[in-house]
Amino acid sequence: MNSPNQPLPTFDEVLLCTPQTTAEQVELFLRRCLIPCSGGEKIYTMLYADELSYDVSCRAEELFQHLQHYNSTYRLVILCNCEREHSYIPSVFSQYKVHMIPQRPLAEIQGYLQHHYSVAQPSSSAASVFKDNMCVGIVSSKRAGVGK
């Protein structure tokens, strides 16, 4: 948010981890992050890395230890749930841990995201169904099974 005109991360810079995330997916992600190339100064982010299975986490740590020697200027952020801080990945990288609390007001964060996700010409775009011509939206319900 410090550079509002910078684009949001692209699909190759973010890995959304689940218990079903495979070791191969993590390996491809870490190779993109840790092997130097002419891709610029991207910031790679693993979201919910605490949800990776034990086997995948072990392989990820081994690969990280091996590949980090090839690039001393990598930029990797690993986000985990603080309630699962004793799972494998948060424990292995605990020496780098930083407790993060959003520093900006919610309205400012929403404005930033609206700037990046609004559609300029919504004439025939599906964005016309979302509020303020946004190209993304969240639909939620407190009741299950209501077709959302």
Overall morphology: globular
Q: Which percent range fits the helix content?
A: 25-40%
The helix-and-strand class reads alpha/beta
The count of β-strands is 3
Range of strand content: 5-15%
Task: Describe how the helices and strands are arranged.
Elements (H helix, E strand, L loop, with lengths): L13 E3 L6 H12 L9 E4 L6 H14 L8 E4 L8 H5 L13 H12 L31
Parallel strand pairs: 1-2, 2-3
Helix pairs in contact: 1-2
Tell me what the structure shows.
- The chain is α/β, with parallel strands linked by helices and 148 residues long.
- Helix content is 29%, strand content 7%.
- It has helices spanning 23-34, 54-67, 88-92, 106-117, and strands at 14-16, 44-47, 76-79.
- Strands 1-2-3 form a 3-stranded parallel sheet, with helices on one face.
- Helix 2 (54-67) links the parallel strand 2 and strand 3.
- The radius of gyration is 18 Å and the shape is globular.
- The chain starts with 13 loop residues before the first strand and ends in a 31-residue tail after the last helix.
- The model has no long low-confidence stretch (mean pLDDT 83).
- Keywords: Ligase.
- InterPro entries: RNF213.
- One of its GO terms (molecular function) is ATP hydrolysis activity.
